[in-house]
Amino acid sequence: MDDKILTADKATAELISKAKNDGVETVWDRQQIMKAPCGFGEKGLCCRLCAMGPCRISPTPGKGAQKGLCGATADVIVSRNLARMVAAGTSAHSDHGRSIAHVLHMASKDGNYTVKDERKLLEVAKRLGIETENKDMFDLAHEVAEYALNEYGKPFGKLTIPPSVPEQRRKLWEKLDIVPRAIDREVVAIMHSTHMGCMADAESLITMSLRTALADGYGGSYMGTEISDILFGTPVARSTEANLGVLEHNAVNIILHGHEPALSEMIVLAADDAELLKLVKEVGAEGINVTGMCCTGNEVMMRHGVKIAGNFLQQELAVITGAVEAVVVDVQCIFPALPELAEAYHTKFITTSPKARITGATHIEFDEATAYESAKNIVREAILNYKNRNKEKVFIPGSKNHATVGFSNRTIINHLDKVVNSHIDPTGTFKPLADCLTSGVLRGAVGVVGCNNPKKVHDQSMIEIIKTMIANDIIVVATGCAAQAAAKAGLLSKDARRLAGKGLATVCELVDIPPVLHMGSCVDISRIMELVGEVAKLLGVDNCDLPVVGIAPEWMSEKAVAIGHYVVASGIDTWLGITPPIMGSEEVVDILTNRIEEMVGAKFFIEEDPMKASRQMIERIELKRRRLDKKM
Ligand code: NFS
Ligand code: SF4
Hints:
- The protein is 49% helix and 11% strand.
- It is an alpha/beta fold.
- The strands form four sheets. The chain has a six-stranded parallel sheet with strand order 6-5-4-7-8-9. A six-stranded parallel sheet has the order 13-12-11-14-15-16, with helices on both faces. It has a two-stranded antiparallel ribbon with strand order 1-2.
- It is globular and about 65 Å long.
- The mean pLDDT is 97.
């Protein structure tokens, strides 16, 4: 590991060396001990779905075992494993959406949770066909919550598809029979069909995966975003900072890590509590510095401007600064390594969710019914821990960058209207954006999303790709840990316009936006789907006709696999910068990177080299432009 470059981020590199000096291990050390990943698993060829196995198929066709004991071929095993990844990813996003719906169900005027965005509540109620006239706001909120919760398990009918999906797309899904039924049902359907001795046909398994993934993209994730906006407000543009340099020497540093805003919103509130601020003085600190990590960080960054301490691969490094009083987590993307690491410093590692208990953690269960009190208890623990900080062990890197964040679709439309149309009536739509796309001032748009993965130099692919896109007049929208990589690299600041091509730079200037728009957490990819659908509708075309693509350059999680499937099913070509575990089946590779296009008008591209991927994306965008020109 000594000479290998592990990260494109200076703060990260500095803390990797500190880890070495401190004698603590990080993900990169464990990666070295692990050596190469298992060759069978890497290709998707290992099956342990029943106790006759585990079976593994030889990666060399024609040599060694070509079938499992039951006769399952490589195609069957690979597609079953992939479908299970989609089911797991869908369940993670959707269970998050369900939790938020439960919180909305308990919203009340004087309670812990209230309705911050009444306009959004009315919009969502309308789209769900719920009568809004003369209704008490909270009664309506509860009705919306019930409707949402019902989408998980309704016994008959199909998922309510949002109106942002173009009519042609909806019809296509109907024709292909991939309109999801209830959200939970689709996950169960995959778990059933991938049980030993059930579905054994790659194409059918992939079709099922598309349906399940759509239940994520237009069900669980979509509602997760919408209901969070209702409860906590639809994001507006605001300034913030990103990277480990946002930690402070004289403040109680709290890292919020995980996903569901129900917890992080309350911690942000509790950090302003008068009683707790008094306690802060008593322990000799100057204040409470709440910062975020991963997607819950994105949620509070978008809505409150809470600073971002870092993305996925920086979670251990935050502890290694020695300056963090508490890492507070809820669910997803949390390293089980954290409790042991925290022991080596003074940091308290606090789990809060019954869905994610971790051995060695301090568990303070977060109860939504008494949310504020629970949050106060958690913050109090952090404050009381300040006295244990060992100043000699502290190193806070100097790196941080300025970022403008908060680009919900409503905010994008407001920006477009305020500036582009200041002399005429505001359109209240994405029309100015659609015009920029058709005229060619903007060549296209790309969504850069997803995680970090130590298989790649941390943040490097994301940054290279984003820079190449904006230099070529392709506007970037970003979510998740990719958006945080962009923030740290200064690409979310308005100054980043200087890196943009002439067309994009002009648009940014006029509309007063950075060339890379932070649209939120990973469930907020629903915002991107809505944006694409609305632009397609304005032009009277389908999503797949637009010069728009998506990429997850450094993905690692099953959630990313689910996202990739619903994005492709939505008609948007998707690049994967990490090779998924499918290479053991020529059939599966052929379907996903080729034949699927005949079905849904889009496909997967697998390309680990960021420059090659960038070139392919630009080519594809230009091809779509030529086709669109002919259509219009
Ligand atoms: Ni997305 Fe969030 Fe980051 Fe990847 Fe994890 S935080 S939901 S999964 S690692 S982008
Ligand atoms: Fe082996 Fe078939 Fe059992 Fe999988 S389901 S472990 S391939 S026997």
